[in-house]
Amino acid sequence: MDIQNSVLNYLLTNKNKRIITMFKHIKKLFTVIAALSLLFVYACDQGGGQQSKGKSKTLKNTQKKGFVRCGVSQGLPGFSNADASGNWSGVDVDVCRAVAAAVLGDASKVKYTPLSAKERFTALTSGEIDILSRNTTWTLSRDADIGLTFVGVNFYDGQGFMVRKGSGMTSVNDFKDGISACTNIGTTTELNMRDFFNSRGISYEPVAFEKADEVVAAYDSGRCDTYTTDKSGLAAQRTKMSNPDDHIVLPETISKEPLGPVVRQGDSVWEDIVRWSLNVMIEAEEYGVNSGNADSMKTSDNPAIKRLVGAEGELGAAFGLDNEWSLRIIKQVGNYGESYKRNIADTGILPDRGPNQLWTKGGILYVPPAR
Ligand SMILES: N[C@@H](CCC(=O)N[C@@H](CS)C(=O)NCC(=O)O)C(=O)O
């Protein structure tokens, strides 16, 4: 019995020893795993840090190619429109030019790709373009869409309706059952129109085309009772109609259409470059810095102005750019006010800036400080 007990004791003690040794090994293994994880997190962090120091893939590719690939409309005066020689202009085009001035030193180094509303997002996510600057409304579902990121607003707009003067309609309250409405496929316009007519219990006939010129031609030829899109679009497209004065834009605005540039998701440095290229144009106007006086502003007493023209601070470094990136934008493209005047006001499209006025002048243009 005693022998049996001592054998049992021996075995148990040895088993305990084996268990303790096993635990020691497991502990060691966990320590190694924890150390490796820390190392991995640190390495990833370094990668992120380096990216913010200018390792943007899109920036690198853009500099290698020598031009910014920008998606625009198929022709919307004031926003993105090509003249007979193929020169693009407009406030949306100026966002692309600003980025080209910042990253390539030359605002003219842009390759424009005209896109319909329907094809615009695929062009961006597939990598055909690197900026979409095409009167595009920032909405939750578009922003949350895998692959898209809105960087700001360069024109605050809303949806409206155009009708023929002779129709007798002067308000949306005059709309009757069976009204036909011309519009573009793949737009917020289509969705707002549906909400609008359905919530008012008005039956309507949507007449939608992919190309904007088809929409304009259809309405102009009398195919629809009303033409609906962003109010800026109505003002712009009206210039293409056979008798612009035969039409009026009704006073009501049925939606919010904050229009702005979009980039592909996944390159946060590129996203920042586009965002701050636009912000710089708006802040330059706020501080009275323009294409004519930008150089002389280097000796300004105001540190905010000095930063904006690259005479103080190192704002470009975070993007992997030199310190004159913002000065080049202002000198070559101008501030937001200059761009608005040149493209939208002086062309007679929308002489009044409305909400697209600086916050300091009663509008809602307000950008975070460039510091
Ligand atoms: N802002 C709206 C509407 C954009 C839109 O495509 N509007 C038409 C009518 S103004 C247009 O851009 N036409 C010019 C074109 O298709 O090239 C959206 O983002 O869905």
Q: What labels would you give this structure?
A:
371 residues; five-stranded mixed sheet; three-stranded parallel sheet; D-Maltodextrin-Binding Protein, domain 2; 15% strand; alpha/beta; 12 helices; binds glutathione; 3 domains; single chain
What this model shows, in words?
The protein has helices at 2-51, 57-65, 91-104, 120-125, 140-144, 188-200, 212-220, 231-238, 268-286, 303-308, 325-332, 336-345; strands at 68-72, 81-82, 88-89, 110-114, 131-132, 148-150, 155-157, 159-164, 179-184, 204-209, 226-230, 247-249, 257-259, 262-264. Strand 2 (81-82) and strand 3 form a beta hairpin. The longest helix is centred in the N-terminal third of the chain and has 50 residues, at 2-51. The protein has 371 residues and is α/β, with parallel strands linked by helices. It is globular, with a radius of gyration of 29 Å. The protein starts with a helix and ends in a 26-residue tail after the last helix. Bound molecules: glutathione.
Strand and helix map with partners:
Layout: H1 2-51, H2 57-65, E1 68-72, E2 81-82, E3 88-89, H3 91-104, E4 110-114, H4 120-125, E5 131-132, H5 140-144, E6 148-150, E7 155-157, E8 159-164, E9 179-184, H6 188-200, E10 204-209, H7 212-220, E11 226-230, H8 231-238, E12 247-249, E13 257-259, E14 262-264, H9 268-286, H10 303-308, H11 325-332, H12 336-345
Parallel strand pairs: 1-4, 1-5, 9-10, 9-11
Antiparallel strand pairs: 2-3, 6-14, 7-13, 8-11, 8-12
Helix pairs in contact: 3-9, 3-11
Bound molecules: glutathione.
The site of glutathione has 20 residues, from helix 6, strand 11, helix 8 and strand 13.
